[in-house]
């Protein structure tokens, strides 16, 4: 076990925010399922909550945490430790904390109430979305030395992915409704991790029939194994690309 | 031990280092002096790999330090302004660094025992005064018995007693044949320590001379006067 990851995880645990977040997730999940008599409806409600809250908490906490670790990072760079190891450890520590907290907060109620394949899919997606937004937080915090600017950038990115993107897609949809843009829509969806996640779940819960013609296209594409694989691969890229860019910048950074 | 060839670094428009060439050998105690902002700290941070130079190379024991990190296990670094995780206690920071470095041989705890008394180790870093922080930095620099000591303004902010202890420790280490690199503005403090002087200005090395040569050239016994003499003759 890497010692630096250990120190980071202990530090995050001491912070208690991640613990509060776990309790919050659990409260949402348990209350949603006990209020809705239909587990499918419960799953969908929970999905919307997860896709709003998980990105927000992970991106904000991670960004601030990275900025606050500036001293820690500086101390470690003067020691015989590879820079890559410092950055990867920081990511792993945050990733581990948020994945565990999602598993405990939302994973347990999901497996209790929803049927197993959907619960599994939701849990996996929730973890992946956490990782995606931690990676984006790494990118936005390395791009700016100014803390306020970096945190601002993270908030804007969250706003864009969680709220604005949907509006943009809807706008395009109405503007070009005369044209056959369904296939392009599949492509556009790939450019937002949250939408990618949402579609994956909706197809699994089998409510895509309500999504009309586009739903059919999506089902056609994402419903088969290839579509599913591509969607997961795209989500992986959403983790890898921002993180690797930030790693590359960090290796060259003057401290 | 450390060889620097044609090292250049720019921060935006500011030329922090301009084609610096230096050679530092075992057993030397070198004072790195010069006005504020002349590139001393940038030079030190380049040696430590904390600043990535634009051009040139640094050889540590004959090997380039680019893409290497193991060489840092032979360096003890005391930063000018020690920055530490604020919510850790002194003891935790020391333990953490010990843990991470996985040092094989014995620890050199002389300074640790002198500077950081057991009851102080519970204090959180955020509550420390500047001088106590300096003590923590000094302890960490000497703890692993490194071959090279790089001390950036070591005595600034230390009380006279601690400062004297630190000086004794530096002399002791120098006599063991280690390379010591010190930056300081208090030239009078360096008299009894150093064997060589590197003078920097605007990112350039103006001269690198043994102390005896400097004394002979200027006819002054005190370093501060010798330096002042040289600067005057240059201005004229």
What structural category characterises the helix and strand content of chain A? mainly alpha
* Average pLDDT, all residues of chain A: 89
Q: Which H/E pattern describes the elements of chain A?
A: HHHHHHHHHHH
Radius of gyration of chain B: 18 Å
Please describe what this structure looks like:
- The complex is a heterodimer of chains A (255) and B (236).
- By secondary structure, chain A is mainly α.
- Chain A has one domain (2-252).
- Chain A has 11 helices and no strands.
- Chain A has helices spanning 3-15, 17-35, 39-68, 70-77, 83-113, 116-143, 147-175, 182-189, 193-205, 212-222, 225-251.
- In chain A, helix 3 runs antiparallel to helix 5 (83-113).
- The longest helix of chain A is centred in the middle third of the chain and has 31 residues, at 83-113.
- The radius of gyration of chain A is 19 Å and the shape is globular.
- With 236 residues, chain B is of the alpha/beta class.
- Chain B has helices at 40-47, 90-101, 110-115, 130-143, 160-175, 187-190, 211-218, 223-235; strands at residues 2-11, 14-24, 29-33, 55-60, 63-64, 75-78, 148-152, 179-183, 196-201, 204-210.
- The longest helix of chain B is centred in the C-terminal third of the chain and has 16 residues, at 160-175.
- In chain B, helix 7 crosses helix 8.
- The relative contact order of chain B is 0.18.
- The model of chain B has no long low-confidence stretch (mean pLDDT 88).
- Chain B has 8 helices and 10 strands.
- The A-B interface holds A 3-4, 7, 11, 14, 69-72, 74-83, 252-255 and B 11, 45, 48-52, 69-73, 77, 79, 83-87, 93, 96-97, 99-101.
């Amino acid at each position: 076990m890497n010692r630096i990851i250990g120190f980071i995880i202990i530090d995050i645990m001491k912070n208690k925010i991640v613990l509060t977040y776990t309790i919050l997730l659990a409260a949402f999940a348990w209350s949603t399922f006990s209020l809705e008599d239909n587990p499918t409806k419960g799953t969908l409600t929970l999905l919307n909550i997860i896709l709003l809250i998980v990105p927000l908490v992970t991106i904000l906490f991670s960004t601030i945490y990275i900025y606050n670790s500036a001293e820690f990072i500086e101390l470690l760079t003067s020691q015989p430790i590879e820079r890559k190891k410092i950055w990867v450890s920081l990511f792993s520590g945050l990733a581990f904390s948020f994945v565990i907290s999602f598993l405990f907060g939302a994973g347990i109620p999901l497996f209790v109430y929803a049927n197993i394949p959907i619960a599994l899919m939701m849990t996996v997606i929730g973890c992946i979305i956490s990782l995606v937004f931690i990676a984006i937080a790494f990118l936005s915090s390395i791009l700016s030395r100014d803390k306020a600017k970096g945190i601002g950038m993270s908030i804007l990115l969250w706003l864009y992915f969680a709220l604005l993107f949907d509006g943009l897609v809807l706008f395009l949809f109405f503007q070009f409704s005369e044209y056959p843009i369904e296939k392009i829509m599949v492509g556009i969806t790939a450019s937002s991790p949250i939408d990618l996640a949402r579609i994956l779940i909706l197809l699994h819960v089998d409510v895509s029939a309500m999504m009309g013609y586009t739903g059919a296209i999506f089902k056609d594409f994402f419903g088969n194994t290839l579509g599913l694989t591509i969607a997961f691969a795209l989500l992986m890229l959403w983790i890898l690309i921002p993180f690797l860019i930030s790693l590359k910048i960090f290796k060259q950074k003057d401290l | 031990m450390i060889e620097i060839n044609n090292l250049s670094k720019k921060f935006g428009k500011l030329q922090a280092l301009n084609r610096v060439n230096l050679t530092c050998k075992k057993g030397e105690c070198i004072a790195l002096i010069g006005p504020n902002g002349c590139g001393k700290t940038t030079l030190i941070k380049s040696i430590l790999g904390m600043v990535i130079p634009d051009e040139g190379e640094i050889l540590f024991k004959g090997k380039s330090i680019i893409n290497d990190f193991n060489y840092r296990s032979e360096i003890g670094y005391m930063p000018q302004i020690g920055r530490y995780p604020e919510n850790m206690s002194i003891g935790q920071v020391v333990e953490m660094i010990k843990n991470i470095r996985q040092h094989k041989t014995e620890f050199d705890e002389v300074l640790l025992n002198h500077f950081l008394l057991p009851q102080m180790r519970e204090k959180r870093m955020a509550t420390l005064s500047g001088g106590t922080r300096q003590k923590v930095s000094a302890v960490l620099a000497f703890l692993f018995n490194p071959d090279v000591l790089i001390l950036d303004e070591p005595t600034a902010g230390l009380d006279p007693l601690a400062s004297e202890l630190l000086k004794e420790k530096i002399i002791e280490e120098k006599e063991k044949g280690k390379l010591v690199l010190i930056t300081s503005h208090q030239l009078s403090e360096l008299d009894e320590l150093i064997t060589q002087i590197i003078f920097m200005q605007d990112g350039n090395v103006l001269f690198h001379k043994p102390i005896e040569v400097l004394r002979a050239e200027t006819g002054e016994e005190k370093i501060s006067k010798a330096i002042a003499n040289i600067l005057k003759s240059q201005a004229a």
